[in-house]
Specification:
This protein has two domains: 6-180, no CATH class; 199-332, Rieske [2Fe-2S] iron-sulphur domain (Rieske Iron-sulfur Protein, 3-layer Sandwich). A hairpin with a 3-residue loop joins strand 6 and strand 7 (85-88). Strands 9-10-11-12-17 form a five-stranded antiparallel β-sheet. A four-stranded antiparallel β-sheet has the order 13-14-15-16, with no helix packed on it. It has a three-stranded mixed β-sheet with strand order 2-1-8, with no helix packed on it. The chain has helices at 37-40, 42-72, 89-115, 133-149, 156-168, 171-176, 226-233, 237-242, and strands at 6-9, 12-15, 17-19, 22-24, 33-34, 78-81, 85-88, 122-124, 199-201, 218-223, 244-248, 267-271, 283-285, 290-292, 299-301, 307-310, 319-320, 322-324, 330-332. It has eight helices and 19 strands. Helix 2 (42-72) runs parallel beside helix 5. The chain is elongated and about 95 Å long. Helices cover 32% and strands 19% of the residues. The chain is α+β, with helices and mostly antiparallel strands and 347 residues long. The two termini are 57 Å apart.
Length: 347
Amino acid sequence: MSSNEHNETDNQVVPVTQTSSEVRLPNSQLPLHVLRRADVDPIAAGRAERQVSIMFLLSAVFTVLATITFFAIPVDKFIRVPGAGVTQASNLALGVTLGLAIFLIGTGAIHWARKLMPDDEVIQSRHSYASSNQIRESVMQEIREGGIESGFATRKIVRRSLLTALAVLPLPAVILALDFGPMPKNELRETLWTKGMRLVTDPTGRYLRPEDFSVGSLVSAHPENLHAWEEENHNLNARAKTSILVVRMTPEQLRTSQGEGWDYQGIIAYSKICTHVGCPIALYEHRTHHLLCPCHQSTFDLADSGNVVFGPAARRLPQLPLGVDEEGYLVALSDFQEPIGPSFWER
């Protein structure tokens, strides 16, 4: 880094007084500025340059190791870490290698700035905020000189090692995209609801009849085969798509539905999942027939096809058509006709 320092007063550059490794600003009350060893010793400057380059190159090595571990370590391999318990080996390896790669770029840049870049001290008088063209040109000239003094153009090993580290750093982000899994295809449009599927209460699993509902009643429900599906597949994915809210109102209060004859004597059913970001909804106001999402206050009118009346949700709640079977239990007449949950690129 340059050892020259100056005092800028009234836009004039004043040279500084320099004695060996000490620099004093004229008429300044600041303590003596001691030059760094790399400023006066070419051997120390070369050693610092090599240290910076090693950090950048090690960053590139750890980035490559992160890419290798993604493929080499099975996702079902777990290890016990003292103090942290059992963790997934692949996640631990990726975290350590990528963390070190980013850390070494940062420490290398800091070491570069502290040891090799200019270490000037400047005193500048305050003037009006509007700068003259002469000052602007002077600033641009200083920026250009700073770029030259930083050594980015002349210190080839530092420049090349930094560019190498930055070039390979995005590689794991591309590789990790492979972990997103297959495209959902029609999975967002298909649920466990089918024609004739009975409604059962959540979580008791009791079958529902129309006489179980009074005007204003609201019940959480799901299809009767949900628990069997969860035991077979060992996840809750189907629950997120099939959960519904069943409400009863008088036929006169029900203004519109999403299909002809989709209610049964004023009993209607809608998806329980908000179409904004997928929060579960259960705040029902009987007087207005509005359903409120507690996350971001999206509000849906259940008496009017579940349309949005307030908030950030972009589309209405999907409605499940209802009827009764031969034994008098409430059943679905079909699956939802619209995708469940938040809007996506097709909605």
